Amino acid sequence: MQVVTTQAGLGRIEDGAAALLDTAFPHVRAVLQQEGSLRCLASCPVRRRIPLEEVTLTALLGHPRAVWGVGLNYVSKAARTGRGLPEQPILYLAASSGVSAPGAQVVIPRDATEPDYEGEIAVVVGRRLYQASESEVWPAVAGITAANDMTARDVMRTTGIPALAKSYPGFTPLGPSLRTPDDLADRDAIGVRTWINGELLQDDTSAGMIFPIPDLLSRLSWFAALEPGDVVLTGTPAGTGQDRACFLADGDEVRVEVDGVLPLLTRIVRPSDASPRDHRPIEQLG
């Protein structure tokens, strides 16, 4: 099942149309908080059908409670950077206020001189995971979607704090649709691709992850309880702007494709009066 949140309510994607459902839930996260899964939407009556191209898609989850991410989680990315494979996941928590709706413009702040894209598979938690085994992870996952885990590389370099480099408003666009795990063709090799202005620059699958999805969420759950509607960004493969020393510019369009879900489009805006400021190490701020 593939689910969307629209201006007219929740819907299932069926035969190229949005089948709008007879439910009062405003978005997917609200369903998960009450039900722990999306199963109730599979049998929900359809009140009308609208061609997908005529539907206005809105934020799939509203504003998630928590957005977790992981650095250096693809073999290809580690190889490109020349770094060894990490023994433990490099985890961080980004501000949920950075989440933006699919298709939204992202305005780059003047402080961010090296804005970068990171096409990723986003995992949405369906029911609570705490100190979970790997075998318990997929049954507790509500679904996957696409994500663009944008990063201000200059801020990352000068502060050393991922949350600061990734939490600007709009820096975490999430995809327009959610695919349930039971409907994935191969959940151990989910494809993820990123296109910049029509040029394919990232192309990998989750089989290239250093810490696969069940392992990653299990490890995370031993330190923090993952609640319904929480998002875990699972890392980005090689091919980012950092790898090419070429960062996002005004007017760029980023397209992230993840197998089984609608593509995520992000349009970049950099105000013409933007002028960079120096970043001091965090211990010097205040």
Which tags fit this structure?
five-stranded antiparallel sheet; five-stranded mixed sheet; 8 helices; 286 residues; single chain; alpha+beta; disordered C terminus
Q: What value does the Rg take, in angstroms? A: 18 Å
Q: Largest sheet at a glance?
A: 5 strands, antiparallel
Overall pLDDT score:
94
The CA-CA distance between the termini, in Å, is 49 Å
Strand order of the largest sheet: 4-3-2-1-14
Helix-strand string: EEEHHEEHEEEEEHEEHHEEEEHEHEE
Strand content of the residues, in percent? 25-35%
Classify the secondary structure makeup into a structural class.
alpha+beta
Specify the helix fraction band: 10-25%
Silhouette: globular
Short structural description:
With 286 residues, the chain is of the alpha+beta class.
SSE blueprint and pairings:
Elements: E1 2-6, E2 9-14, E3 17-21, H1 28-35, H2 39-42, E4 46-51, E5 67-71, H3 75-81, E6 90-94, E7 99-100, E8 105-107, E9 115-116, E10 119-125, H4 137-140, E11 141-148, E12 151-152, H5 153-159, H6 162-166, E13 172-173, E14 177-179, E15 191-196, E16 199-205, H7 213-221, E17 231-233, H8 241-244, E18 253-258, E19 264-269
Parallel strand pairs: 5-17, 7-13, 8-19
Antiparallel strand pairs: 1-2, 1-14, 2-3, 3-4, 5-6, 9-12, 10-11, 10-17, 15-16, 15-18, 18-19
